[in-house]
């Protein structure tokens, strides 16, 4: 469903991605693991059109989107929940969800998506009129994911969904991520600093180091790899 080939991205003189290549099949949960500065967030931002690569190619659902504007990428069915959630704190929960559906012109579909989001995150329905900035960290993450789901994505990228969330809510968020994938068939690319958690919910993993794939394989096998355990799993 997604194929990234020889991607090169730089911030001025600093190279963030150097020849990055990987592919993700439809229906999978795949995770990108790596330390700070490895290029995980840059990868997601480039795929979603927020950054332009110096070289390389991105193909999504059999269409080259390397130079496609972000709003057209969203319209193709690729959603992005950014690091730090980036909700509209001065808008209500309902208004934030409406923003996620701004490209949809079918009111029945918008209502269907809204009910779908409430089914996944019932707490959002309870807080529809509440200002988003007053929600807890976990609730804001639910809202950020819900906002992305409002756009009817086929493919969803999640950047650090556990960041800044109370431990008791992290398991809930990740249970919902698995539910979104299994019950609704949405392919998921997950960036997560908690490597143990990421490997628990994913079927396949890529390990990034300085903008390149250093390791890859089935998540259950990588969990037992001595190099990965020593560097990322606290072993």
UniProtKB/TrEMBL annotation:
Q: GO terms for molecular function, please?
A: ATP binding; ATP hydrolysis activity; branched-chain amino acid transmembrane transporter activity
What is the protein name given in its UniProt record? ABC transporter related
Q: Name one Pfam family in it.
A: ABC_tran
| CDD domains per UniProt | ABC_TM1139_LivF_branched
Domain called ABC transporter: residue spans: 2-235
Q: Which family does it belong to?
A: Belongs to the ABC transporter superfamily.
Signal peptide residue numbers: none
GO terms, biological process: L-amino acid transport
